[in-house]
Amino acid sequence: MIIGVDIDNVIADTEKELRNVLLDTWGIALDREDISDYALQNMPGIQGDVLDGLIKMFAEGDIFLRLEAIDGAGETLRRLANSHELHLVTSRPEKVRPQTVEWLKTNDIPYHDLIFSEKTKLNGVPYELFIEDQTNFALELAESGAFVLLFDAPWNRQLEHVNIDRVYTWDDVRKFCFPPCAIGR
Ligand SMILES: [Mg+2]
User: What is the pTM of this model?
Assistant: First the structure.
């Protein structure tokens, strides 16, 4: 099957590095739970020069090289890539492809396609399973008929849909994709 996987806050711990940058550069201390909306301009205390600085930092892209991989992502994705077509689909701008490719290589994250798409995750691809954290994209995918594993985050707590299961760790994803006692196998 074709499986789609988001990068930021699913494979890479972008939110943690964002909070580190806010503290180190501007002295703004945010807890993860403070981020109830992932749009930068809607985060508490992010406006004016701070917002401009963050937008510039993300557009230049080197921040993406410093991200930590989320525990268990690489291991489970390598296992999935053995028997499925794996598309990494990110809403990062195409301009940061070089840093993204370098980070994926450094962290041994496999993929068959890497798609930069800011407004939609679908692009006409019939995804059967998609791993995502953003509310708007998860809903778009679920309504298209894809089954979504939604990485739990304060910015997606309100979202529920018949085609969405909430996961908390890559261990949850692994158990969903490789159930040890699957009936019929
Ligand atoms: Mg994301």
Answer: 0.95
